Amino acid sequence: MRAATIFAFLLLAAVAARFLANDAFLGDFRAFYCGAKVALQHADPYREQPLHRCELSTMPPRMTSAWRWITIPSPLPPYAIAFFAPFAMLSFAQAATIWVFLLLCGTAVTVIALLRLTSHSPVGVISALALSLFASSIMVGQPVPLWTAGLSLAALFAKQQRMALAAACVSLTLTSPQIGLAAFLSMFLWLPRSRVWLSVYLACIIALAVALLGAHAFVEYVTSVLPMHALSEVASDDQYSLTVILQAVGMPYRTAIALGSASYVVMAVVGIGLARVVASRYRDDALIVLVPPAVVLIGGPFMHFTLMAVAIPVGLVLMSKKDSPKNVAFAAILLLAIPWPMAQSFALAVLATAIAFLLAWRLRGLALSQSSIVAAAIAILALALHYMYGVRPIHGVSMGRPIAIDAAFAQASWAKLIFGSFSTGDAVSWVKRIPTWVGLVTLFLGATARSI
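The chain above was modelled as a monomer; its predicted structure follows.
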């Protein structure tokens, strides 16, 4: 029966991957694919050219002309670009299909790992991840489902004291340094048996990157690419960082980025310390892996809304513990499970209502009447946000101050798009972020509290 279920899922995922690879935007994967392709040609994957030529060659005719003038940056560390090298050896259509298939499998692996870590029903766990991963990440080709899978598997193997596997899985998440680094350091500090394995995997990752791109790529990434990318999105309506708040109140961009970067370090330290406390309280080493990546989402210089799904596993694990603050964790999951920026579509209100009902009924175990009330509250919030999108244009004239980025880098082109249409700073751009921010803070309070 289990083999038949796995086969059926893989078949369905393969069909879905082919369909989505043809119709989804996959803009982020396009940039990652081309970044690796450029690197294989011994060129600089962070520069405007030849990255733009590659991206242009992969765009289908139906893609709007506006995107043909934009270069989507590939702001990944050198070892992450090396990770995409095998995809770059295929045609874009083939690579995109395989990539989407892997993202679907990553979502399934996340669900399976969390089911083994908790006592929740499959419906409850799937409902918590369905929109946060599928709707917000897979359609643009973001690797978030692989990061949640890596963290969830690392947490499961850490709980089982299988440190070689746990270290391998958490090393995968280093392709997103702002997420993986906190989990990596937490494991290294609090799980001594993982240190040798973590060191070996890190050495292999660095060696692979140096072999493909050279040591200078690390210097360029840290000194040029990261600062420029943070600057290109410093006022973006889709950013959830401390930096975007600071610039909105008039702080100079570079100062806001510096303080946002400092806040990341502070929250990483807080998250790693809290991980030890919470893991000891509940006697579960899985929390050593899961807590820090969720905590660092509060603050930072660059936090895109697709990353918020990384916090959900912590809430699910906390909800499964005896004497844990279940209501607080549930409230956090409820707010984080819904990609609120997508409320511009009426479909989100319908889907969010269904997700809220299933979470209340199957995850929290509320009665049908109580679950209906929770669903109605979420429906009202989603519809109110949808109405705000209807009153104001989804994208408008930028409210941001001009910036200067070296035109040789892809971030210069990207900044023109972000500042031209996606940095309005109007009311709806802030209201849509409030539920997620409240969810993150609520989850943090749930991790620090006992039973409520």
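Residues 2-448 form one domain.
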